[in-house]
């Protein structure tokens, strides 16, 4: 019999600095994906995906371009660490 442990489904989110539900799977199949799963909540990741989509669309980025990938990776880290990330025109972060 398996005992449910609610803390097993939580992660201390580096963006929100509190325990929140974790991502069920790593977002990338590598060590970086595992690190993100262990340090970023599902809530923060969903918000990042929304911002990422806006940045790609507004800047007309091709994710086949290595400079575009590098830019998105830098923005992801800034966003998740509450740094000064780039905001698309009219972007308003959701109230936390």
TrEMBL record:
Which Gene Ontology cellular component annotation is one that this UniProt entry carries?
cytosol
Iron listed as a keyword: yes
Highest taxon of the lineage: Bacteria
One Gene Ontology term from the biological process aspect of the record: cellular response to oxidative stress
Short name of one Pfam family: Iron_traffic
Q: Does the keyword Zinc apply?
A: no
Note the InterPro entries from the entry: Fe_traffick_prot_YggX, Fe_traffick_prot_YggX_sf
Offer an example of a GO molecular function term for this protein.
iron ion binding
Which UniProt keywords are given for this protein, alphabetically ordered?
Answer: Iron
Q: What does this protein do?
A: Could be a mediator in iron transactions between iron acquisition and iron-requiring processes, such as synthesis and/or repair of Fe-S clusters in biosynthetic enzymes.
The record's similarity note reads:
Belongs to the Fe(2+)-trafficking protein family.
| NCBIfam families noted in UniProt | PRK05408.1
Could you tell me what this protein is called?
Probable Fe(2+)-trafficking protein
Organism of origin is Moraxella nonliquefaciens
């Amino acid at each position: 019999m398996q005992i449910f442990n609610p803390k097993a489904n939580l992660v201390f989110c580096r963006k929100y600095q509190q325990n929140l539900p974790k991502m069920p799977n790593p977002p990338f199949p590598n060590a970086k994906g595992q690190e993100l799963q262990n340090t970023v909540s599902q809530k923060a990741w969903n918000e990042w995906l929304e911002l990422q989509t806006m940045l790609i669309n507004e800047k007309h980025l091709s994710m086949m371009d290595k400079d575009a990938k590098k830019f998105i990776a830098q923005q992801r880290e800034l966003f998740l660490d509450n740094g000064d990330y780039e905001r698309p025109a009219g972007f308003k972060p959701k109230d936390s």
